What we know:
Elements: E1 11-16, H1 23-34, E2 39-42, E3 53-58, E4 61-68, E5 71-75, H2 77-83, E6 87-95, E7 98-102, E8 106-110, E9 115-119, E10 124-128, E11 131-139, E12 155-158, H3 163-178, H4 184-203, H5 206-210, H6 217-228, H7 237-244, H8 248-254, H9 261-277, H10 287-294, H11 300-311, H12 315-320, H13 337-353
Antiparallel strand pairs: 1-3, 2-5, 3-4, 4-11, 5-10, 6-9, 6-11, 7-8, 7-10, 9-12
Helix pairs in contact: 1-13, 3-4, 7-8
Amino acid sequence: MxxxxxxANGVICGEFPADRIPRKHHLALWRRVCAGECEVIPLTExxxxxxxxxSCTLCDLLITRQAxxxxxxxxxxxxxxxxxxxxxxxxYLRSGNLSAALxxxxxxxxxxxxxxxxxxxVPHVAVATDYELVTVAFPRSExxxxxxxxxxxxAVSWAPGSAQGEILGNALEHLLSRLPQLDRDAAAAxxxxxxxxxxxxxxxxxxxxxxxxxxxxxxxxxxxxxxxQLRDPSLGVQTLCERxxxxxxxxxxxxxxEGGVASYIQRQRLHACMRELTRIQxxxxxxxxxxxxxxxxxxxxxxxxxxxxxxxxxxxxALRAQAPAGRKQPPLRSEQDYWQYADVxxxxxxxxxxx
Length: 355
């Protein structure tokens, strides 16, 4: 054992075998793994691991392959305050679809083969259909481009088939194939090389380079205003022109990357509906229509269509997924190795936050 607590090769690997862990424990176990980092909200009634969950530490990297039922993850400002800003996180979506809103203003949609780098210091929500995802957490101090991210550009994504996506995806697949048969020197070299690749791709992104000089305060102020006025049915381009004393052309330009003001408002309202639906337990009759109407969706069929297009599942599915209030959780059998490995992961993450 090395002085930093890692084994001689710098790699700790473990897994949560889906077929050996009782289904009734799957959600509680995953919540324990994610404890302190984000809240895990199931989006199906019978939530479970779809395959074995595998995780490895590679020197100071944490690599996890997860495959599970539809899920909503919420990383709040309280999570950020508790866990700090130590990480930059890579998502590599192998199957399913994922929609995320970061800092309640930046939207990301991923399809199979997409890659996305997130600044973990920014609160966010992510909604995934049944999915398989590989995540890599990097120490923030090892990724120089992190200083260009934050609230200005909390995420950078690459589409399937893009040059960056192919380079990074192939490198990640190679890295996964080498674990855990590595000696310590090889582990350190792979960790440093992969971190350097991600950092180099980020530094080559024009959007991040512009952050050195761009003034984004007006766009941020407009998005904040939109978020505060989402329930106003008249909210739109003209509202922003009057509030910020600018031309329609200016508003169009500032929201061009978002697909326009109307598209941005619609996505924000859909995320608000998802948030409410996943918090309702024992839903009363008609609550779906009430939530949709409160956020400006007066046509139930159109709302259902837009919701499914955004999240990959229907609003009815999101509403049904919530367990009735008062349902007893199964006892946690901490003596089982999978519970113990969850605690090992949490301890390792905590030790890296304090560095």
